[in-house]
Amino acid sequence: MEYTNRMLLKGNEAVVYGALLAGCECFFGYPITPASEIAHTAARCFPKLGRTFLQAECEIAAINMVMGAAANGRRAMTASSGLGISLKQEGISYLSGSELPALVVDITRGGPGLGNIAPEQSDYFQVVKGGGHGSYKCIVLAPASAQEMCDLAFTAFDLAEKYRIVVYMMTDGVIGQTMETVTLPEPLPGRREIPEWALDVTRPRTNMISSIYLETDDLEALNIRLQEKYRRIQQNEQRSELYQAGDAEILLVGYGISGRLARTAVAELRKQGVKAGLLRPVTLFPFPADELRRLPAKQLIAVEMSNGQMIDDVKLAINCDRPVHLINRMGGNIPGVDEIVARTLKLTGMEVK
Q1: How many CB atoms sit inside 10 A of residue 338's CB?
Q2: pLDDT for the residue numbered 139
Q3: Strand 26-29 and strand 76-80: pairing?
Q4: Which of 149, 169, 175, 233 is deepest in the core (most CB within 10 A)?
Q5: Residue 54: in which H helix or E strand, if any?
Q6: Please, which residues have CB within 8 angstroms of residue 147's CB and are 6 or more apart in sequence?
């Protein structure tokens, strides 16, 4: 595959380029709208670089193949949308219990059930809160552009291996399908040594990787270790983008396409003399609570394409000490900038009578 620094890519394509440049060696997946271009791009690009692409027979098979590759110290990824992510949750819980690093991409579509193929943000609970069984969490990255889909995929594997954790990249169908100019990062050097914890039959002693602990004290010890890991991640890995937030009296909070639309709405509100600002979470776990707490806004508004799922984390971050409102659409509908502006003015009592 010929390498060039700037390309016109869909977000779904950019995530594959970012992963490959970070040294991802294996892609296992099953196509589903609106994430199918990820599998299509991986099928085209991975074999050209001598790396493994395999279209599994189903989503469950794909996540178990990721587990096998990760256990051998390989950088591996999969991608799907809400229905497929639901099927992968058991395997993601096994990965988490085994402390194996991997990248899982979720391009969210309308739900519940079969729903539709329009963009939504209703996978927040199952992805951010750990949708499978057990007391586990995953790092969750929330890109808002094709450039960030590339950049965050490039970063994801270092985070996954640093903490031996599953890293999700979760965004909506708009960001996945949007085509933009992307500046590619410089590729990382060739494959480093297999990690010490990984399976490697060439070593004198083969490691044991498992998520089963039949003794209750042993399983409790694992869970205590996992919770301590999540506390370290919460302390060290919060990421967000601020826009006009320093003096904002009204702060909008949104990720993915909702964050991009909210940014334009903030600019319009400023033109009308309203001191509005934006905090766009780049990590959903860890949620950027520290940044949110320090901002002086008197009222906050969560902008979401769901029934209101991220809003819980906004309220928890500020200990419910200020009003938090919700602007939302569901079913694949996208809130327009004018709608966000009008509802912000109404919710905050600034609407012209």
Answers
A1: 11
A2: 98
A3: parallel
A4: 149
A5: strand 52-55
A6: 14, 180, 181, 182, 183
Looking at residue 92, the DSSP 8-state letter turns out to be: H
Structure tokens at 119: 């963009």
Q: 72 - beta bridge partners?
A: none
d(CA 304, CA 247): 23
pLDDT tens for residues 328-337? 999 999 999 9
Binned at pLDDT 50, 70 and 90, residue 293 comes out as very high
Q: Return d(Cα 201, Cα 66) in angstroms, integer.
A: 19
- Assign 3-state DSSP to the chain and report helix, strand, coil percentages, each to 5: 40, 20, 40
DSSP 135: S
Alpha-carbon distance 297 to 293, whole Å?
A: 9
Task: Give pLDDT tens digits for 201-235.
Answer: 777 777 889 999 999 999 999 999 999 999 999 99
> Side-chain half-sphere of 43: how many Cα atoms within 13 Å?
12
Q: CA-CA distance, 66 to 27, in Å (whole number)? A: 8
The verdict on whether omega for the bond into residue 286 sits within 30 degrees of 0, i.e. cis, is yes
Match 């904002």 to its residue by tokens.
Answer: 248
Cα–Cα distance measured from residue 7 to residue 3, given in angstroms and rounded to the nearest whole number: 10
Q: Exposed (0-12), middle (13-18) or buried (19+): which is 212, by Cβ within 10 Å?
A: exposed
Residue 241 is which amino acid?
E
Q: Which residues contact 102 (CB under 8 A, 6 or more apart)?
A: 66, 67, 70, 76, 77, 78, 95, 160, 166, 167
Residues sharing a CB contact under 8 Å with residue 166, sequence separation 6 or more, in sequence order: 92, 95, 96, 100, 101, 102, 103, 104, 138, 139, 160
